[in-house]
Amino acid sequence: VQLVESGGGLVQTGGSLRLSCAASGFTFRSYAMTWYRQAPGKERELVAGISSGGGTPNYADSVKGRFTISRDNTKNTVYLQMNSLKPEDTAVYYCKVRRNWLDYWGQGTQVTVSS
């Protein structure tokens, strides 16, 4: 299993970024996918999740209405569109898949929102 995140960077408050997570080594279309983030000095937290077929996404209250999770099962990729970014969104963002009761993580991509 391999997960590779990309798309992070430095953006001003109110800006947008689109994160991607390219998956390989497993049958991507069969598994739910999730995005997490970890800010300095804080625990890793769930940001958004999406089912294997792309329906019923769920979001942390802190990002509802601003972030959108989606997936393209033809490209084995899950996305996180982040709009109206705030300084408190600054974190390393990770995608994760749970397969056979094991969690697999990507290396993360840094998102920094300047005020």
Outline the fold blueprint.
Blueprint: E1 2-6, E2 9-12, E3 17-24, E4 33-38, E5 45-50, E6 58-59, E7 67-72, E8 77-82, E9 91-99, E10 102-105, E11 109-114
Parallel strand pairs: 2-11
Antiparallel strand pairs: 1-3, 3-8, 4-5, 4-9, 5-6, 7-8, 9-10, 9-11
Task: Explain what you see.
By secondary structure, the protein is an all-beta fold. The strands form two sheets. Strands 2, 4, 5, 6, 9, 10 and 11 form a seven-stranded mixed sheet that branches. A four-stranded antiparallel sheet has the order 1-3-8-7, with no helix packed on it.
Please sum up the structure shown:
By secondary structure, the protein is mainly beta. It is built from no helices and 11 strands.
Largest sheet: 7 strands, mixed
Mean pLDDT: 97
Shape: globular
Distance between the termini: 37 Å
Radius of gyration over alpha carbons? 13 Å
Oligomer: single chain
- Class of secondary structure makeup: mainly beta
User: How many distinct helices?
Assistant: 0
Low-pLDDT stretches:
none
Percent strand equals over 45%
Helix-strand string: EEEEEEEEEEE
Helix percent reads under 10%
Count the E strands: 11
What are the defining features of this structure?
mainly beta, 4-stranded antiparallel beta sheet, 0% helix
